[in-house]
Amino acid sequence: MKLTTNEIAKLNKVIAALQTIVVQHSKSGNAATLKKSAQRIRRSGRELVAFRKMLIAERKKGIPVATLAKRHRISSAYIYQL
């Protein structure tokens, strides 16, 4: 299959547009933000006990579970589990 000159020019325009989008996306930091939020945090036994106490104290202050989940990057189900 041989491409015509016109088809090659159109493909080059599409490639240039896609490269521009990729560069803009990488500059906006969205990819880095997604990678950071996807990282898991492992807590040792002592850290887990301290984290649980902190969550309980914050809940007693009246902070909603959804807010705590976003703040600590954990699920609301995990907060209820603790």
Q: What's the helix and strand layout?
A:
Elements: H1 5-28, H2 30-38, H3 45-60, H4 65-72, H5 76-81
Task: Write up what this structure looks like.
By secondary structure, the chain is mainly alpha-helical. The protein has helices at 5-28, 30-38, 45-60, 65-72, 76-81. It folds into two domains: 1-39; 41-82, no CATH class. The longest helix has 24 residues, at 5-28.
Radius of gyration from the alpha-carbon trace, in angstroms: 24 Å
Strand content: under 5%
- Overall, the morphology is rod-shaped
Unreliable segments (pLDDT under 50, ≥5 consecutive)?
A: none
Biggest beta sheet summary: none
How far is it from the N-terminal to the C-terminal residue, by CA? 62 Å
H/E series, N to C?
A: HHHHH
Which structural category do the helix and sheet elements fall into? mainly alpha
Overall residue-averaged pLDDT value:
83
Helix content: over 70%
Number of domains: 2
How many distinct helices? 5
Number of strands: 0
Q: Which terms summarize this structure?
A:
82 residues; 77% helix; mainly alpha; 2 domains; 0% strand
What's the short version?
This protein is mostly helical and 82 residues long. The protein has helices spanning 5-28, 30-38, 45-60, 65-72, 76-81.
